[in-house]
Amino acid sequence: MAKEEFEIEIRSNGEVSIKTIGIKGTDCLEAANQIVRMIQGREIESVRTSEFYELDSTHVDNMNQTWNRWE
Questions:
Q1: What is the DSSP letter of 22?
Q2: Segments forming the whole domain that contains residue 31
Q3: What whole-number distance in Å separates Cα of residue 26 and Cα of residue 24?
Q4: How many domains does the chain divide into?
Q5: Helix, strand, or coil here: 10?
Q6: pLDDT tens digits, one per residue of 21-37
Q7: Which pLDDT tens digit goes with each residue over 43-65?
Q8: Which of 2, 8, 28, 68 is 20 to 30 Å from the Cα of 43, by its Cα?
Q9: H-helix or E-strand containing 68?
Q10: Backbone phi and psi for residue 39, each to the nearest 5 degrees, phi listed first
């Protein structure tokens, strides 16, 4: 399993930037949202990196199990 990290930048105007690293698919959105909730912030903008469009192996396995069920 790849190392999962957050890169958090706090700017002088109080804005916070959160980047997830090593978290694939929509899991990165949930992970970033958890940080936003913890700091009691609100999302202004969301930018998806290439990792967002990658599927983790668990998601692929679950998709295969669902597909096989209908065969």
A1: S
A2: 5-69
A3: 7
A4: 1
A5: strand
A6: 998 888 888 898 898 88
A7: 788 888 888 888 765 554 544 44
A8: 2
A9: helix 57-69
A10: -95, 5
> b vs e for 53-68, b when ≥16 Cβ sit within 10 Å of the residue's Cβ?
eeebeeeeeeeeeeee
Give the DSSP letter string of 23-63.
--TTHHHHHHHHHHHHTT---------GGGGSPPHHHHHHH
Tokens (6 digits) for 12 = 């002088």
Is the pLDDT at 70 greater than 70, yes or no?
no
Whether the Cβ atoms of residue 5 and residue 22 lie closer than 8 Å to each other: yes
Both structure tokens of 15:
């804005």
